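user: can you give me the structure for this one chain? C-alpha coordinates are fine.
assistant: on it. calling the predictor now.
[tool input]
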Amino acid sequence: MRKLPKTAIAAIFALCPAAPAQAAEILETLDGKWSGSGWARHKPGAERETVRCRISGIYRQTDRRLTLKGKCASPGRSGRLDGYVEPVDKADTYAGRWSNPFGAGSTMVHGRNRGDAITFRFKFRDRETDETVNGIMVWTVRADRFTIATGDVSGGKAAILSEIEFQR
Protein backbone atom coordinates (compact mmCIF):
# COMPACT_ATOMS: atom_id res chain seq x y z
CA MET A 1 0.00 0.00 0.00
CA ARG A 2 1.20 3.49 -0.74
CA LYS A 3 2.02 5.74 2.16
CA LEU A 4 -0.59 8.46 2.76
CA PRO A 5 0.38 12.04 3.54
CA LYS A 6 0.12 12.77 7.24
CA THR A 7 -1.94 15.86 6.49
CA ALA A 8 -4.63 13.76 4.79
CA ILE A 9 -4.88 11.44 7.77
CA ALA A 10 -4.89 14.31 10.26
CA ALA A 11 -7.64 16.02 8.28
CA ILE A 12 -9.91 13.05 8.96
CA PHE A 13 -8.94 11.90 12.44
CA ALA A 14 -6.98 13.28 15.38
CA LEU A 15 -4.92 10.39 16.71
CA CYS A 16 -3.78 10.16 20.29
CA PRO A 17 0.01 10.68 20.53
CA ALA A 18 0.36 8.27 23.46
CA ALA A 19 2.60 5.22 23.29
CA PRO A 20 1.08 2.10 21.68
CA ALA A 21 -0.94 -0.24 23.87
CA GLN A 22 -0.17 -3.94 23.67
CA ALA A 23 -1.73 -5.34 20.48
CA ALA A 24 -3.73 -8.09 22.15
CA GLU A 25 -4.80 -5.84 25.03
CA ILE A 26 -6.63 -3.33 22.81
CA LEU A 27 -8.42 -6.15 20.93
CA GLU A 28 -9.42 -7.92 24.14
CA THR A 29 -11.17 -4.72 25.30
CA LEU A 30 -13.68 -5.16 22.41
CA ASP A 31 -14.90 -8.58 23.61
CA GLY A 32 -18.65 -8.55 24.36
CA LYS A 33 -21.92 -7.10 23.08
CA TRP A 34 -22.14 -3.53 21.76
CA SER A 35 -24.83 -1.23 20.40
CA GLY A 36 -24.00 1.80 18.36
CA SER A 37 -25.40 4.81 16.60
CA GLY A 38 -24.00 7.46 14.33
CA TRP A 39 -24.03 8.39 10.67
CA ALA A 40 -22.71 7.26 7.30
CA ARG A 41 -22.73 8.49 3.73
CA HIS A 42 -22.50 6.39 0.58
CA LYS A 43 -19.73 8.50 -0.97
CA PRO A 44 -18.00 11.85 -0.39
CA GLY A 45 -20.46 14.72 -0.64
CA ALA A 46 -23.56 12.50 -0.27
CA GLU A 47 -26.16 13.16 2.42
CA ARG A 48 -25.54 11.69 5.88
CA GLU A 49 -27.82 8.84 6.94
CA THR A 50 -28.52 7.87 10.52
CA VAL A 51 -27.07 4.42 11.33
CA ARG A 52 -27.80 2.06 14.23
CA CYS A 53 -25.84 -1.12 14.89
CA ARG A 54 -25.66 -4.12 17.20
CA ILE A 55 -22.45 -6.13 17.17
CA SER A 56 -20.69 -8.79 19.20
CA GLY A 57 -16.96 -9.00 19.72
CA ILE A 58 -15.40 -12.39 20.35
CA TYR A 59 -11.77 -12.34 21.45
CA ARG A 60 -9.91 -15.68 21.30
CA GLN A 61 -6.92 -15.72 23.65
CA THR A 62 -5.29 -18.68 21.86
CA ASP A 63 -4.56 -16.81 18.62
CA ARG A 64 -5.22 -13.24 19.89
CA ARG A 65 -7.90 -12.77 17.21
CA LEU A 66 -10.88 -10.46 17.58
CA THR A 67 -13.95 -11.26 15.50
CA LEU A 68 -16.71 -8.65 15.22
CA LYS A 69 -20.15 -9.60 13.86
CA GLY A 70 -23.43 -7.79 13.79
CA LYS A 71 -25.98 -5.82 11.86
CA CYS A 72 -26.27 -2.14 10.96
CA ALA A 73 -29.31 -0.36 9.56
CA SER A 74 -30.04 3.05 8.09
CA PRO A 75 -33.33 4.30 6.64
CA GLY A 76 -34.26 1.95 3.81
CA ARG A 77 -31.40 -0.54 4.11
CA SER A 78 -29.58 -2.88 6.46
CA GLY A 79 -26.66 -5.23 6.28
CA ARG A 80 -24.21 -7.44 8.12
CA LEU A 81 -21.02 -5.91 9.45
CA ASP A 82 -18.27 -8.36 10.25
CA GLY A 83 -14.59 -9.05 10.21
CA TYR A 84 -11.57 -10.15 12.16
CA VAL A 85 -8.35 -8.51 13.26
CA GLU A 86 -5.25 -10.01 14.81
CA PRO A 87 -1.80 -8.75 15.77
CA VAL A 88 1.07 -9.49 13.39
CA ASP A 89 4.84 -9.44 13.89
CA LYS A 90 5.18 -6.09 15.64
CA ALA A 91 3.41 -5.28 18.90
CA ASP A 92 1.50 -2.37 17.34
CA THR A 93 0.63 -3.86 13.92
CA TYR A 94 -2.57 -5.63 12.85
CA ALA A 95 -4.01 -7.42 9.83
CA GLY A 96 -7.43 -8.83 9.06
CA ARG A 97 -10.49 -8.75 6.85
CA TRP A 98 -13.40 -6.32 7.16
CA SER A 99 -16.79 -6.49 5.50
CA ASN A 100 -19.12 -3.52 5.25
CA PRO A 101 -22.08 -3.88 2.87
CA PHE A 102 -22.59 -0.09 2.77
CA GLY A 103 -19.05 0.67 1.66
CA ALA A 104 -16.05 -1.36 0.57
CA GLY A 105 -17.69 -4.78 0.70
CA SER A 106 -15.13 -7.34 1.91
CA THR A 107 -11.49 -6.21 1.93
CA MET A 108 -8.19 -6.88 3.66
CA VAL A 109 -7.17 -4.29 6.26
CA HIS A 110 -3.76 -3.45 7.71
CA GLY A 111 -3.30 -1.24 10.74
CA ARG A 112 -1.19 0.21 13.52
CA ASN A 113 -2.12 1.50 16.92
CA ARG A 114 -1.14 4.61 18.83
CA GLY A 115 -2.52 4.86 22.32
CA ASP A 116 -6.23 4.05 22.23
CA ALA A 117 -6.64 4.22 18.43
CA ILE A 118 -5.97 1.69 15.67
CA THR A 119 -5.70 3.17 12.17
CA PHE A 120 -6.42 0.69 9.38
CA ARG A 121 -5.78 1.25 5.68
CA PHE A 122 -7.45 -0.64 2.86
CA LYS A 123 -8.20 -0.49 -0.86
CA PHE A 124 -11.28 -1.51 -2.81
CA ARG A 125 -12.89 -1.05 -6.21
CA ASP A 126 -15.87 1.30 -6.28
CA ARG A 127 -18.82 -0.65 -7.73
CA GLU A 128 -20.23 2.40 -9.55
CA THR A 129 -17.05 3.93 -11.01
CA ASP A 130 -14.74 0.87 -11.06
CA GLU A 131 -12.01 3.12 -9.63
CA THR A 132 -9.66 2.10 -6.83
CA VAL A 133 -10.52 3.79 -3.54
CA ASN A 134 -7.97 4.21 -0.74
CA GLY A 135 -9.78 3.91 2.55
CA ILE A 136 -8.95 4.54 6.16
CA MET A 137 -10.76 3.22 9.22
CA VAL A 138 -9.99 4.30 12.78
CA TRP A 139 -11.11 2.41 15.87
CA THR A 140 -10.84 4.53 19.02
CA VAL A 141 -11.14 2.14 21.95
CA ARG A 142 -11.97 2.72 25.60
CA ALA A 143 -13.19 0.25 28.24
CA ASP A 144 -16.90 1.14 27.97
CA ARG A 145 -17.17 2.52 24.42
CA PHE A 146 -15.47 2.63 21.07
CA THR A 147 -15.86 4.48 17.80
CA ILE A 148 -15.43 3.28 14.24
CA ALA A 149 -14.83 6.10 11.76
CA THR A 150 -14.10 5.61 8.06
CA GLY A 151 -12.85 7.86 5.33
CA ASP A 152 -11.83 8.04 1.69
CA VAL A 153 -8.30 9.37 1.20
CA SER A 154 -8.03 8.79 -2.55
CA GLY A 155 -6.20 11.29 -4.72
CA GLY A 156 -4.77 13.22 -1.77
CA LYS A 157 -8.24 14.43 -0.72
CA ALA A 158 -9.75 13.33 2.58
CA ALA A 159 -13.48 12.82 3.18
CA ILE A 160 -15.12 11.36 6.28
CA LEU A 161 -17.66 8.70 5.28
CA SER A 162 -18.95 7.47 8.64
CA GLU A 163 -18.69 7.70 12.40
CA ILE A 164 -20.45 5.26 14.69
CA GLU A 165 -20.03 5.20 18.48
CA PHE A 166 -20.62 1.92 20.30
CA GLN A 167 -21.40 1.33 23.97
CA ARG A 168 -21.83 -1.80 26.06
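assistant: here you go. The beta strands are 32-40, 49-60, 65-74, 77-87, 93-100, 105-114, 117-125, 132-141, 145-152, 159-167. The helical segments are 6-12, 23-28.
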